[in-house]
């Protein structure tokens, strides 16, 4: 089973930025743990701070992979283009957010992406990515 995790803007700074919100661990360290624990999966990772690059990656993998875990970061709340890209592909997408977007600033409460995803996992820290993996494995 081939699954990709796609992270959006500023998620390259996990472990460094706002540790009280995002924790102390880099995503690369967390990914190593996920790959060890889920060695039965072909698990890939992609991160970009650029909206168009995220869209290009969704288009690239959205017809051939078994699952996509997407944390679009701040683009979650602003990008009709990413939402349209998710709607256009066939691969199931699970939206993940490390923090609870509903417990943060009001402008973060709305996700433009969720309606085109299988579901959203929010507020469980990095563990949310693994929760999404379990869902995709059961699809």
TrEMBL record:
Substrate binds at residues 71, 77, 84, 98-99, 108. Its EC number is 4.2.1.10. The record marks 17 as: Transition state stabilizer. The lineage of its organism: Bacteria, Pseudomonadati, Bacteroidota, Cytophagia, Cytophagales. It catalyses: 3-dehydroquinate = 3-dehydroshikimate + H2O. HAMAP family: AroQ (MF_00169). Keywords: Amino-acid biosynthesis, Aromatic amino acid biosynthesis, Lyase. This is 3-dehydroquinate dehydratase. Pathway: Metabolic intermediate biosynthesis; chorismate biosynthesis; chorismate from D-erythrose 4-phosphate and phosphoenolpyruvate: step 3/7. Catalyzes a trans-dehydration via an enolate intermediate. Belongs to the type-II 3-dehydroquinase family. The keyword Lyase applies. Homododecamer.
